[in-house]
Amino acid sequence: MTSAAVEILGLGLGILGWVGVIVACGLPMWQVSAFIGGNIVVAQTIWEGLWMSCAVQSTGQMQCKVYDSILALPPEVQAGRALTVIVALLGLVALLVTVVGAQCTNCIRPGKMKSRIVIAGGAIYILCGVLVLIPLCWFANIVISDFYDPSVPSSKKREMGAALYIGWAATALLLFGGCLICCCSCSQRDETSFPVKYSAPRRPTSNGEYDKKNYV
């Protein structure tokens, strides 16, 4: 597979990861109600996300409410909001930078600068994956800690929602896509920077024959 194809593959994975982060940010299923004990029949299920909380009735009706105060939110929710929004913006920047420096575009002439721009785009994708991983692991740690904490009432215990799993999948795509972009760009730069040496043309001697030292 050529470096251009690997670069396009990395860009595609980065875009999928970026879209996955946006979807995970908007979903209200970061934490869901945990069903503990012998009581299987429940009237409603609680979903809690970064922007709203929803109550899903057993009849299928769902009521959602946006959080009223930002400052009253827990620190993990505030950090999750900030980091996911930053990642969404950085993902757009990474997309533009990578497209400008990609081998399949002619925005910039081929050379070291073009490779450096692509590497910068891949590095931004990797940074996005690291940043979005922070709130995901933070939420997961809180959910697991509260679940096994005997002092927390059963009604307050939560389980990890689908948004966390989508976010982890998006993180893997961002990291893998960014690494592919950086690796193929580095190899391309090494190939283009290899010096080309030219030998001096052979000149015939006075008697019309080539000098024997040219064959040594």
From TrEMBL:
Protein name per Swiss-Prot or TrEMBL:
Claudin
Q: Which GO terms describe its molecular function?
A: structural molecule activity
Keyword Flavoprotein: yes or no? no
Where are the bilayer-spanning segments?
Answer: 7-30, 82-105, 117-144, 164-184
User: Which family would the database say this protein is a member of?
Assistant: Belongs to the claudin family.
PROSITE patterns attached to this UniProt entry: CLAUDIN (PS01346)
Species per Swiss-Prot/TrEMBL record? Molothrus ater (Brown-headed cowbird)
Keywords tagged on the record: Cell junction, Cell membrane, Membrane, Tight junction, Transmembrane, Transmembrane helix
Q: What does this protein do?
A: Claudins function as major constituents of the tight junction complexes that regulate the permeability of epithelia.
InterPro entries (alphabetical): Claudin, Claudin5, Claudin_CS, PMP22/EMP/MP20/Claudin
Question: What is this protein's gene name?
Answer: Cldn5
State the signal peptide span: none
Q: Where in the cell is it found?
A: Cell junction, Tight junction; Cell membrane
Membrane topology is: Multi-pass membrane protein
- A cellular component annotation (GO) from this entry: bicellular tight junction
Q: Taxonomically, which superkingdom?
A: Eukaryota
- Main subcellular location: other
